[in-house]
Amino acid sequence: MHGTSSQGFAVYPAIDVRNGRVVRLRQGDYDCETRYDEAPLELARRHARAGARWLHLVDLDAARQGGYTLGSLLREIRRQTSLQVQTGGGVRSQADIDALLQAGAERVVIGSLAVREPDRVLGWLTRYGAHRITVALDARRCADGEWRLPTAGWTEQGAQLLEDVLDRFADGGLRHLLCTDIERDGMLSGPNLDLYRRIRACAPHLELQASGGVRDLADIAAARGAGCAGAVLGKALLDARFDLVDALALEVAPVGRPC
C-alpha cells in the first residue's frame, strides 16, 4: 500500500494543557514551557470555526503523574463543537479508557504504557476496536543510530527499539499510530520524513500521524507526501506561522501541490 490511507489525510490541531492553561513544551521538557493566553475551550471553538474535523488534546499533568484531569473540558468541547477528539495523558487502565470514551473521546491515546505493558494495550485494541485507540510511540535517535522509546512520558529513556514495538502492535491489529521525533518536538525544525518513511516501510497498513517539528504548510504537505495519514499541529499553529484554514485545505489538495 502506498500513499496515505484509504481514510484520507487529516490535520490535527493540538491543545496541550498544563495547570488549566494551553502550553507547549520543547522536546517534552516540562522546564521549557511556553504559555498561551487563550483558554483551552475557546481555542478548540476557534479551531472548529475554522473547519477542523479533529482535535488532539493532551493532559500534560496526567502524562507526568497519571489520572486524566480534562474530562470536563472534553465534555464541553464535544458539547459546544463538532470536533472529533483524540485525547490522552496518563491513561493507565481500562477504567481510564471507559471514562474518556464516555466523556466523548473518539480515540484514546496511549503512550508509555504501550511500551511498558504492550499485552494490556493489545487486549484493549481487541476490547474497544482498533478505531478507538491511538498508540503514541515517541522516539529518540540514539548515538548508535537506533530509535529507542522512553518508558515514562519523555523523561526516562528506555532500551526498547521502535521497530520491535511497532512490529508487535502492527501484528496485533493496531490501526492508528502517532509517532513523534522527540528531538524535533516544539523546535520548528521540520518533521522527520525519513523516520516516517521508515515506519511506512515496516507497517504500510497503519494510519500514521506525524508529530513534531511542523513549521509551515510545506511541512504538512511533505508529511502527506511521505505517506502519513495525518499531521499534528502544535507550536507553529499556536504561533500563527500559518492559518489553520490553509492547513485544512491540504487534507484534500492533490499530493505534490506546491504551497
Automatic annotation (TrEMBL):
The entry's keywords: Amino-acid biosynthesis, Cytoplasm, Histidine biosynthesis, Isomerase
Catalytic reaction(s) noted: 1-(5-phospho-beta-D-ribosyl)-5-[(5-phospho-beta-D-ribosylamino)methylideneamino]imidazole-4-carboxamide = 5-[(5-phospho-1-deoxy-D-ribulos-1-ylimino)methylamino]-1-(5-phospho-beta-D-ribosyl)imidazole-4-carboxamide
Active site: 16 (proton acceptor), 138 (proton donor)
GO molecular function: 1-(5-phosphoribosyl)-5-[(5-phosphoribosylamino)methylideneamino]imidazole-4-carboxamide isomerase activity
Domain of life: Bacteria
One Pfam family linked to the record: His_biosynth
Localisation: Cytoplasm
CDD domains: HisA
EC number(s) given by UniProt: 5.3.1.16
Metabolic or biological pathway: Amino-acid biosynthesis; L-histidine biosynthesis; L-histidine from 5-phospho-alpha-D-ribose 1-diphosphate: step 4/9
One Gene Ontology term, aspect cellular component: cytoplasm
BP GO annotations: L-histidine biosynthetic process; L-tryptophan biosynthetic process
Cytoplasm as UniProt keyword: yes
Similarity comment: Belongs to the HisA/HisF family.
PANTHER family: 1-(5-PHOSPHORIBOSYL)-5-[(5-PHOSPHORIBOSYLAMINO)METHYLIDENEAMINO] IMIDAZOLE-4-CARBOXAMIDE ISOMERASE
Protein name (record): 1-(5-phosphoribosyl)-5-[(5-phosphoribosylamino)methylideneamino] imidazole-4-carboxamide isomerase
Organism (species): Agrilutibacter solisilvae
Gene designation: hisA
